[in-house]
């Protein structure tokens, strides 16, 4: 465990020396024993397996079987069309997934390429892959930690562990011994792979490498997690099984009935296969895949990269988003927000590390203030961080807390480089966790000055005066209490508060002697602020029936305050820490999991536990994150969403989707896109069911009542070919309905076809059947030839379905309110389909193939009004519903 043992005991256990390190020979032996300091890569799916995995669904299997039967019966055109759509869907899915996988880099990029170590008593750089337990690491600011290690020395050392623990503020390190029950984020004498030193320096002995590190255990945990099928994949499989079974039963019944009624058995078998093929929507996989692919393209423009096509729809069904705080809800940048000087509290504006912003006293901007100036000068000179600009992007070098002070000074027109030229540093006393204070000696035009910053109570203890109204006055006990009250107020607002002081000192003074009789100049309060757009995004999610839960490694107070500010925490919700969660049994946790909106100070296994508990309750869970610590939960969630800019490669590898702008608001866009795709898929299925129900009823009644086939097999196949082709593709391009993001998410157990849609499809299919049967009855009564009757019904069904296509642009809204021409793709698709039907009944060679005859203008005068009732009837139903629910 190492963190609970004395340094000497650790060195003894690892059989190494702090002064000399390992010998080269011993290091080679240990390398053979422990292996390279590398992470084992998860076995990648081969290109062939990835391609074949696109053809696993039950619906695809039925379609392939239908194609084989069609080919066997000589219907080669239909067999080709079915196989073409199946292969097209597979290729589109494969290309998208292959490209996404190729764009995700492997885990190795988080490993430092070289490390400074002691071996054979000498300092030297060694490739990080060759490090072994027992090696002595020499660490300084800017270094990436290459392996887990126990600290032997820690001089003002701070480490950024946000990628591992989620904590936004760098952790102060020490060599103290900690109790065995100390949780990982609080083991301050340990450093971990993938984290980085932001301040100070230290020496450490490596305790674990490769897959044995905390990082490696997370990578191993990823390999143990199996991804579930997405809701769309489950629903398509379920729909395929249901439709396949129902179709075979109905078609077999009608075919047998036809044989009993005296029809030729082979003709009825051929007809049965044709009807079965027509009843199975072979365009569905292609339409779904194209719809998803188009959605992916639109989402890339909205800063979301989807790795697997079906994941697009998953967001549309999501009803819980578990989000990390640091870097996701917040900017992952420490920023000064409040400044206290001359008895006044100033507000500082600006975003990130960009040195633009203003100081406000109340609502009034402050341009020049001697007290602010003196405070900012101290904060800048007593500081080891720097502000840099690269390609128009501002960033800091060094400790984020110190960086925040440099940025605040730049906002006030004070640039560190300029100040340091005028005020040369002559000495310093470094910051330490024990002293909680840092002091520098800097030259000035009128002599040497000491500048100090640190914990407010420590700074106040070192001060006897205060800078007020342009003068140095006595710092009375009453004034100290007033300042401490301000400190408490700022701390309660989750601000990290630092105090500042200065003093003019003799030229020959020692730095340590300067830390007394100082002049208090003020306070600065800083924090990692929420992103501006997040609050709006969370509110939109709430109105869309999506609950947001914060899961973070930060402290409970900070997490609670941010959650309340963003609207995540609501009255009656619970806040749970990792320790409290660990103390709950599975049954106890299951009882309260739906009430918890904030999880603080949690570890990777806790995040995983939360996601799995919510999934067990039937929720569709999305998890956002950017750190190594988020990866297991990202993979286990229904939808793992990684940050593209600040996210580690491990989190990207485990995710289903990556936000290229790290913007929570992009999730809202992705949710809307996912919902729209699911809506369009459902509408296409409802459109197709209308056709299939209508055809079965037409033939069933024709056989039973008149011993006549109203349409022949080849005509059924043609209807299937042209109506299940372009119109569904056009429906998949339909824009989102207004109010889509004010509807509740689709329930996990809800199928692709709701009861309402099934009733509508059944009603419209019956209407088409009634019209066709009326034509059959009327034509037979008037002695019309059978070929003419079949052509009339054949054409009536196609035109009715074209009107029906406009019905399913939206399940709820009238096509006239949407705008008839707003989906131009559908207009072109309908016109193309009608043109193909005209070819089938007017081109001589096609007349022979489909046994059709030309139709007169009077025939069309009957067909078009009858067919239009399909649209009119649905518009009337939508109008009634609008009247009832308005």
From TrEMBL:
Which branch of life, at top level? Answer: Archaea
Q: Is-annotated flag, keyword Nucleotide-binding?
A: yes
- Cite the PROSITE patterns for this sequence: ATPASE_E1_E2
Q: Does the keyword Cell inner membrane apply?
A: no
User: Which keywords belong to this entry?
Assistant: ATP-binding, Calcium, Calcium transport, Ion transport, Membrane, Nucleotide-binding, Translocase, Transmembrane, Transmembrane helix, Transport
Which Gene3D superfamilies does the annotation name?
Calcium-transporting ATPase, cytoplasmic domain N (3.40.1110.10), Calcium-transporting ATPase, cytoplasmic transduction domain A (2.70.150.10), Calcium-transporting ATPase, transmembrane domain (1.20.1110.10), HAD superfamily/HAD-like (3.40.50.1000)
Spans traversing the lipid bilayer: 50-73, 79-98, 242-263, 269-294, 684-706, 712-736, 757-777, 789-806, 826-848, 860-880
Which InterPro entries does the record cross-reference, listed alphabetically?
ATPase_P-typ_cation-transptr_C, ATPase_P-typ_cation-transptr_N, ATPase_P-typ_cyto_dom_N, ATPase_P-typ_P_site, ATPase_P-typ_TM_dom_sf, ATPase_P-typ_transduc_dom_A_sf, ATPase_P-type_domA, HAD-like_sf
Q: Describe its membrane topology.
A: Multi-pass membrane protein
Q: What class of enzyme is it?
A: translocase
What Gene Ontology cellular-component terms does the record carry? endomembrane system; membrane
Q: Which NCBIfam families match?
A: ATPase-IIA2_Ca, ATPase_P-type
Name assigned to this protein: P-type Ca(2+) transporter
| Native organism | Methanosarcina barkeri 3
Q: What is the organism lineage in this UniProt record?
A: Archaea, Methanobacteriati, Methanobacteriota, Stenosarchaea group, Methanomicrobia
């Amino acid at each position: 465990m190492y963190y609970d043992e004395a340094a000497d005991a650790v060195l003894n256990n690892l059989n190494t020396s702090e002064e000399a390190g390992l010998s080269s020979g011993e290091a080679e032996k240990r390398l053979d024993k422990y292996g390279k300091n590398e992470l084992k890569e998860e076995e990648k799916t081969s290109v062939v397996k990835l391609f074949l995995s696109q053809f696993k669904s039950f619906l695809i299997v039925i379609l392939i079987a239908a194609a084989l039967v069609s080919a066997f019966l000589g219907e080669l055109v239909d067999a080709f069309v079915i196989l073409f759509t199946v292969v097209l869907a597979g290729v589109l899915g494969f290309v998208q997934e292959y490209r996404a996988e190729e764009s995700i880099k492997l885990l190795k990029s988080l490993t430092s390429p070289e490390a400074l170590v002691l071996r054979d008593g000498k300092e030297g750089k060694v490739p990080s892959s060759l490090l072994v337990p027992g090696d002595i690491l020499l660490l300084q600011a800017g270094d990436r930690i290459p392996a887990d290690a126990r600290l032997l020395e820690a001089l003002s050392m701070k480490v950024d562990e946000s990628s591992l623990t989620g904590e936004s503020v760098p952790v102060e390190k020490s060599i103290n011994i900690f109790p065995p029950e100390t949780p990982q984020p609080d083991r301050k004498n340990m450093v971990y792979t993938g984290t980085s030193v932001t301040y100070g320096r230290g020496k450490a002995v490596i305790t674990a490498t490769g897959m044995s590190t905390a990082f490696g255990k997370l990578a191993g945990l990823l390999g143990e997690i199996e991804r579930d099928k997405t809701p769309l994949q489950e629903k398509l499989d379920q729909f395929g099984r249901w439709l396949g079974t129902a179709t075979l039963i109905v078609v077999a019944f009608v075919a047998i009935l036809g044989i009993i009624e005296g029809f030729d058995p082979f003709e009825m078998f051929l007809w049965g296969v044709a009807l079965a093929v027509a009843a199975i929507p072979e365009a569905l996989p292609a339409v779904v895949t194209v719809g998803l692919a188009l959605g992916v393209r639109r989402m890339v423009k909205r800063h979301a990269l989807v790795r697997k096509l079906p994941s697009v729809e998953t967001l549309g069904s999501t009803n819980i988003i578990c989000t990390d705080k640091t870097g996701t809800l917040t900017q992952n940048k420490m920023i000064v927000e409040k400044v206290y000087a001359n008895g006044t509290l100033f507000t500082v504006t600006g975003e990130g590390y960009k040195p633009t912003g203003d100081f406000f006293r109340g609502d009034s901007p402050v341009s020049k203030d001697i007290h602010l100036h003196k405070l900012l000068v101290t904060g800048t000179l007593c500081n080891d961080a720097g502000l840099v600009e690269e390609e128009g992007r501002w960033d800091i070098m060094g400790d984020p807390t110190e960086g925040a002070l440099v940025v605040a000074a730049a906002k006030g027109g004070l640039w560190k480089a300029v100040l340091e030229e005028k005020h040369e540093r002559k000495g310093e006393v470094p910051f330490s966790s024990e002293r909680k204070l840092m002091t520098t000696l800097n030259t000035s035009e009128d002599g040497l000055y000491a500048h100090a910053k640190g914990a407010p109570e420590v700074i106040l203890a070192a001060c006897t005066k205060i800078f007020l109204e342009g003068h140095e006055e006595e710092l009375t006990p009453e004034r100290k209490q007033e300042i401490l009250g301000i400190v408490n107020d700022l701390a309660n607002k989750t601000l990290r508060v630092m105090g500042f002081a200065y003093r003019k000192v003799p030229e020959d003074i020692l730095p340590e002697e300067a830390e007394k009789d100082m002049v208090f100049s003020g306070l600065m309060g800083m924090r990692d602020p929420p992103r501006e757009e997040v609050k709006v995004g969370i509110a939109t999610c709430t109105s869309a029936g999506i609950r947001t839960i914060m899961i973070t490694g930060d402290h409970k107070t900070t997490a609670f305050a941010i959650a309340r500010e963003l609207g995540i925490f609501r009255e009656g919700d619970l806040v749970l820490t990792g320790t409290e969660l660990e103390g709950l049994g599975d049954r106890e946790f299951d009882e309260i999991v739906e009430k918890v909106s904030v999880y603080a100070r949690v570890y990777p296994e806790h995040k995983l536990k939360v996601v799995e508990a919510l999934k067990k309750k039937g929720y569709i869970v999305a998890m956002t994150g950017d750190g190594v610590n988020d990866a297991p939960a990202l993979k286990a969630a229904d939808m793992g969403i990684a940050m593209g800019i600040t996210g580690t490669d491990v989190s990207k590898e485990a995710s289903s989707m990556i936000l290229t702008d790290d913007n929570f608001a992009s999730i809202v866009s992705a949710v809307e896109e996912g919902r729209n795709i699911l809506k369009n898929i459902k509408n296409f299925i409802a459109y197709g069911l209308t056709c299939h129900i209508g055809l079965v009823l037409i033939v069933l009644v024709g056989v039973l009542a008149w011993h006549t086939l109203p349409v022949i097999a080849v005509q059924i196949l043609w209807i299937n070919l042209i109506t299940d082709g372009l119109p569904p593709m056009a429906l998949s391009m339909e824009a989102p309905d207004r109010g889509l993001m004010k509807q509740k998410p689709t329930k996990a157990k809800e199928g692709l076809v709701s009861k309402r849609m099934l009733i509508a499809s059944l009603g419209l299919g019956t209407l088409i059947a009634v019209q066709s049967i009326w034509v059959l009855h009327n034509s037979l009564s008037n002695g019309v030839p059978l070929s003419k009757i079949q052509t009339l019904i054949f054409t009536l069904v196609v035109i009715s379905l074209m009107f029906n296509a406009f019905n399913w642009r939206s399940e709820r809204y009238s096509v006239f309110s949407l705008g008839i021409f707003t989906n131009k793709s559908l207009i072109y698709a309908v016109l193309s389909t009608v043109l193909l039907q005209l070819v089938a009944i007017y081109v001589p060679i096609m007349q022979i193939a489909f046994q059709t005859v030309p139709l007169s203008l009077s025939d069309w005068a009957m067909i078009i009004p009858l067919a239009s009732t399909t649209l009119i009837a649905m518009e009337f139903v939508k109008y009634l519903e609008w009247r009832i629910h308005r």
